[in-house]
Amino acid sequence: MEKGIFVRRNTPERLSNSDDNKLSIYIENFYGFAITAGVIDEIPFQFQKRDIWFEAALGSRQQKIIEYFLKPLKRGEYEFGAVHVYVRSPLGIISRRYSFDYKVTVPVYPSFIQMRKYELLAVSNRLNEIGIKKIRRLGHSMEFEQVKNYVAGDDYRTINWKATARRGDLMVNSYTDEKSQHIYCIIDKSRTMKMPFDGLSLLDYAINASLVLSNVALLKEDKAGLITASEKIGSVLPADKGAIQIKKILEILYKEKTRYLELNMEALYSTVRATLKQRSLVVFFTNFESLPAMQRQLPFLKRIARFHLLLVVFFENTELKKLSEEPAKNVEGIYVKTIAEKFAFEKKQMVRELAKYGIQSILTAPENLTVNTVNRYLEIKAHQSI
């Protein structure tokens, strides 16, 4: 602590990628008079911001907390530097600079904030608030688990009237699946996933969606597993459940990076056959650049679909979609619109081509990836398709 003033930056142990992360600076005035303080925080260079400047007026012996938010768009290590404070007395007679050495390296992990949001809503049966459809389960493959307090969204048909009468609170029967199903996220990290959208790569969209889907699957008593691949196989995590599994998935996804070569589908197929010992839901996050590129992978996709329920998730080019929907104003505009419409049509052709061989697919805009993927998982689970 310096004479006259004390400052401390409160930095989280880790930051959540693509989310607004709250940080704060605590400042306390030990002078015997009021001051005006200007605070500069040396934030990591990845944010490309040099205007992190805050002003605070503090009376004698007064303290304040300055809060601000940072939104990283890449995973990895971020280094914070010093905090500088410029102090002025009311009439400007005294002016002094303080520097506090708070150098610290903070890792940026996949979006655990988004994961927690989905987890909280799933536990309280409020996933519909963020676009997750409420799907009625078919059949009766459920077994009794416990009696619990009613929360908004619980099915009224599960109310336990005897327990309600005894406790004086509304109580419901809770059920769980008789058998855990295996859910595997396979992430393509080849060069086609390097394309950016709103500052975030397609790989990071897939990573964030995989983290949420795995966590929702674990909450639904399923087993979650993970495979990453490019020109060679990256990480392989066999399906399991329990609190430690989501931590393992988070640690693996934190380290994954896009590669610059094409995906080796033959190696991926061999890994799937060797790792997946029972029929599973395989959610394959990838991006097809063209119809011929998809057709080159199709023989391996068909083989995987013989043994597992395969869901291929790939991306719309939203910029091209906008161009195809805008009216053309000149010859150049007509040419651009025609090319954009061709690419959009090809993407729809891919969906139809996959469906011909019984392969389910999701063609989605990057920002809708997580919601659309979780919706399809819940739909598949409700229909007991696995």
Can you walk me through this structure?
The chain has 9 helices and 20 strands. The strands form 6 sheets. It has a 6-stranded mixed beta sheet with strand order 17-16-13-18-19-20, sandwiched between helices. The relative contact order is 0.11.
Q: How big is the Rg?
A: 26 Å
How much helix, percentage-wise, in residues? 25-40%
End-to-end CA span? 61 Å
Shape: globular
User: Which structural class should the secondary elements be placed in?
Assistant: alpha/beta
State the low-pLDDT regions, or none: none
Determine the mean pLDDT.
Answer: 88
Number of helices: 9
Kindly list the characteristics that best describe this protein.
386 residues, alpha/beta, six-stranded mixed sheet, four-stranded antiparallel sheet, 20 strands, globular
Topology readout:
Elements: E1 5-10, E2 15-16, E3 21-29, E4 35-41, E5 53-58, E6 63-70, E7 76-80, E8 83-88, E9 95-100, E10 104-109, H1 112-123, E11 142-149, H2 161-167, E12 171-177, E13 182-188, E14 196-197, E15 200-201, H3 202-219, E16 223-229, E17 233-240, H4 243-255, H5 265-275, E18 281-285, H6 291-307, E19 309-315, H7 318-325, H8 331-356, E20 360-364, H9 369-382
Parallel strand pairs: 2-10, 13-16, 13-18, 18-19, 19-20
Antiparallel strand pairs: 1-3, 3-6, 4-5, 4-8, 7-10, 8-9, 11-12, 14-15, 16-17
Helix pairs in contact: 1-3, 3-4, 3-9, 5-6, 7-8
